[in-house]
Amino acid sequence: MRKLIIILIIFLVLQLSALDLSHWTQLSTNYFSTDAEDVVELITSASADADNVTSDGKFGFKLQHETSGRINNDLSFTIQDEVFFSEKSHEQKNSFLYNDAKLKLYYHKQNHFIKIQYSNRSYEGENTLFLNSPSLLESIQQRSVHNTYFLYKGNFNKFDLSLLTSLRNLDYRYARLEEEDDEEWKSHRAWDNDWMTNIVAGYQINDAFRFFGKAYYKDDLNENDDYDYTQFGAGIEFDNRFDFFNSLFARFTYLNNTSKAIADYKEHYFLTESRYTKRFNNGFTGFVSYVNRSCYDQKNAEILRISNVAKIHLKYSYLIDNTKDSFILAGLIYNPETDGNLILTELNQYLFNNCYLGAGAKYAPELYSQYIGQIEFLLDPVKSIWIRNEFTDFNKKFGQNIISFGTTLIF
Amino acid sequence: MKKLTILIALFGILLYIGCDKVSDPEFNIDESSCNACGYCIQICPADAIEFNSEGKAVIDQTKCTSCGKCITICPKDAIH
Fold first, then answer.
1. pLDDT at residue number A181
2. What ipTM score was computed for the predicted complex, to two decimals?
3. Residue B73: count of CB within 10 angstroms of its CB
4. Contact B24 A293 (CB under 8 A)
5. Size of interface A-B (CB pairs under 8 A)
6. Which residues have CB under 8 Å from A3's CB, separation 6+?
7. Exposure of A283 by Cβ count < 10 A (0-12 exposed, 13-18 middle, 19+ buried)?
């Protein structure tokens, strides 16, 4: 595998001078503070390295870069990288330092599309916080995650086919108490592998209706098969743009689940999705969506609710220029089963000389409230600098604040 | 179109009123809302979230412990 990746990288580097490259870069630095007494327990569930985690302010930075290019008419590629560093534990991360890299190669000819992807997330070893994955016996520290994908999509008249296969490798370390060695904790290194395949085949009945069937299989390549997962499904979808102002998408899927790690009553699983989008003449756009997940409990012969999610968004754009539009947005999410009810509002307002003011607020009664303010200055349509403040109150248990300063460049 | 919309709405209302809730909540990611920022992957304490081939985050239901940490971190409110 490594040889293949190296050959692929060399091939791409040799071709670079002849390629039509485009770049996107974002660099930001942030200052994080919180009034939580024990950030570790509340935020990351980690138990280790508590001395290194305090409620004091801490600096960090994030650099994201993406390069895209075309090798020839059929072949193109994308390279993405993200580096994150924080002085101490951070509210959004399991590690103080990590690097996330992705290499994607695309082949597109007529009705055939192939994508080959390799991605790697590397974590700084010593200070990575502990995780509890149910498929692993120990509390683990991630070292690295390797992921390879192969995706094929094809269209044959009214038929379509999608085949995805993926291999995931988690490289981790764990500590174990060695009784033979005067009961000393010793660090061990191990690997966890998952292999999955997903096939979807569809038939376009007419312009709007499509029938499809799918099969999914995940093999936990470890010793036991408790986390293996097999899923078969079939469904019908309706996707139609009636005119410029109205479109509707609806899909019903039946799924049959088999896994020791999934409750028996979720064997027969029903997924219903719908989304209606409406555009008005006067600057208003919006959508209403509804997703229902239910299952049939064969043992007790009853249908059970898993989740219901209803969303409404309404956006009013009142000033549109060459770079960004000024708008106000309001939204509502109703999700009673997982306490995910949410009210949100967002504003983007042109101030003067390519300067924009952004503001947002979210209120989830059971979970949190969040307030965001941002000022962005556009040097030109593809280059900007911004300063942003984000305050989150976690259900009155503790609050956290992040001040960020950054720049975005496309060249 | 109106008939189909009404049919889906009625179906949902009937399921909501007439059916009991499952004892263990299950979280899923709305692919149409996901912006692939990866925050949920970086916070998940069960190593249960990964990007799929389309670059969208997906929860592995065999590993998810339903702790709910990913919900509050998602900037696009895509996890339910």
1. 63
2. 0.86
3. 20
4. no
5. 160
6. none
7. middle
Structure-token match 């993406």, residue found = A66
Contact A125, A93 (CB under 8 A): no
Domain-wise residue ranges, chain B: 24-80
Report the b/e string of A168-197 with b at 16+ CB within 10 A: bbbbbbbbeeeeeeeeeeeeeeeebebebe
pLDDT tens per residue, range A106-142: 999 989 999 999 999 888 766 677 787 777 777 788 8
A303 touches chain B (CB under 8 A): yes
Rg (CA), chain B: 15
Res A41: pLDDT: 42
Within 10 angstroms of residue A332's Cβ, the number of other Cβ atoms is 14
- The CATH class that applies to domain B24-80 reads alpha beta
Say if residue A12's pLDDT is above 50: yes
> How many residues in chain A?
411
- pLDDT category, A187, cuts 50, 70, 90? confident
pLDDT of res. A42: 37
Among the partner residues B11, B45, B68, nearest to A132 by beta-carbon distance: B45
* Virtual torsion, Cα B43, B46, B47, B49, nearest 10 deg: -70
- What the block records as the tokens of A12 is 């791409």
